[in-house]
Amino acid sequence: MTKQKKVLVVDDQETMAEVMDAYLKQCGGAKLLYAPNGNQGIQLAREAVPDLIFLDIMMPGIDGYKVCRYLKEDPLTRHIPVVFLSAGQDSAQVRGEEAGGDAFVSKPFVAPEIMSVLTRFLGCSPSSAP
Description:
Elements: E1 6-10, H1 14-25, E2 31-35, H2 38-48, E3 52-56, H3 64-73, E4 82-86, H4 90-98, E5 103-106, H5 111-122
Parallel strand pairs: 1-2, 1-3, 3-4, 4-5
Helix pairs in contact: 2-3
């Protein structure tokens, strides 16, 4: 029996978590964890140690770059892949890579893009996109 995968979405827009949950259902029903800001995201990542983190860049308080750097410096969370979600330009992607991010998805994203990320990091084989 394999353990259920966990995916953490850190984004100040709760609708992003709802959208991601629909994609996760297509990816074998991974459990969605949600944090509305960077500080709570760090705390939840340390407590739950998810298999994948989707991280918004622009959030109130601590931004996604700082959250990613913290997670990648922490021995408990450094192995977790971090996928940045942002409406930013190419410079945001470069900064995300410099912060230790493993992938970058531009908002608004399209289903094949998210499903590709989920397949890459969770090893799922989705039946179809929502």
